[in-house]
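Database export, one record per block. Field names are fixed; values are copied verbatim from the stored entry.
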Amino acid sequence: MQGEPNHKLAIRHVRIFDGHTITAPTTVVIDGTVLGTDPVGAETLDADGAILIPGLIDAHVHLDSPHALDTYAAHGVTTALDMGSVDTALIEQARARTATTTVRCAGAPIIGSAGVHAHVPGIADVGIIRHPDEAEAMVAQRVSAGSDYIKLILEAPGEGGPDADTAKAVVTAAHARGLTVVAHTSTPGAYAMAIDAGVDALTHVPIGARLPAADIDRLATGAHVVIPTLVMMEGVAEIHGVAQYLPASLKTVGALHAAGVPILAGTDANQMPGIPFHPPHGASLHHELELLVRAGLTPVAALNAATTLPARHFGLSDRGAITPGLRADLILLDADPLADITATRAIRKIWCAGTEHAPAQTLSA
C-alpha cells in the first residue's frame, strides 16, 4: 500500500546506520522527496530507538512488469538495476513511475551467437555481435535507446560468447561514451576474459569452481567490482542437484572481499522464460545479504554492498546514504542488522523518495 508524499516529517529518537556503525538517537527530517535538516513545522514520528538504514539497492534484476517496482518498494528495495531487457516499452513504463522504487537499465544485452543466452526468447533478435567492427554501432544503438550502462554476456573461450577482441571493442566503445560495462561471468574462463577486456562490473560467481588467485589479484588491482548474485547461484545449484558446490562459491566471494574487491548485492531476480531459477523480486535481496555474511562479509559490509557501494559504482549520487539533500529512501527497522543481518526483514516503515510504503507480509526469514 502506497501513501501520499510527506510534505515534511521529523523522525525523532531514531538511530542511524551511517555506513560504519549505528549512531546514538537523533532526528532525521524528510522534506518532500529528499532528506532535510530543519524539523520546524514537520509532522513528528517517534521512532523510540528504532534503526534507520538507507533504502536498499538491488544491483542485478530483470523486470517483468512495472508493478514489480511496488513489490520491490514493499521489501525496502528502493532502487533496482535492470541488467538486460529487450522490452523497451516495459522499461519506459517503469521509468515513468514516481514515488516508488526507481529503475536503471542496460537495455538489450550484447551476446555471442552460440552461447546459452542466444536461446533466451527475444534476445537473439537484437543482441548478437559477431565481429569487433559491430561494437561501435551496437553501443551507439543502446545509447540512443536510453541505456544507463552496457550489459555484455561473456562465456569462457570457445563456449559461444563474443571473442576476446569483440569483448574489448564493446568495452572501448562504451567507455568512450562514459558508460559502465557490466559483464555476465559465471565461469572462471569468462572472468578471465572480462578482466582482459577491462569491464567494470562482473556479475555472478562460478558454481563449484574457485577463481584462480591470480585473477582475484587482477580484480583487486583493477577498477572492477563483483556482483555475485549468490541467491541465484544457490537456486541453480539446487535445481541441478549440486547444492554441495555452493560453499566453493561462498569461498570465492569471501576471497574477493578479503582481497579488497568491492562486492555489490544483486539477486538476478526474474520471471524470464528459459531461465533455470527465478529469485523473487524484492524478498530475495534480504537472502542475498544473508549469503554475503555467510561468505565472510561483516553485516556492515553487506549493508554497504546494498547501499553506498552500488550508488557509488553506478553513479547514483543522489542516494545510498542518510545524508541531507539525498533522496528520502529509507527503511525503519525494529532490530539491529549489525548484530544479525536478518534484521533487515524486521521492517516497520519504508519510504521511497519521501512516500511511505507498507512493508510486505512475506519478510520473515
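Remark 1: The mean pLDDT is 95.
Remark 2: Residues 64 and 271 are 6 Å apart (CA to CA).
End of record.
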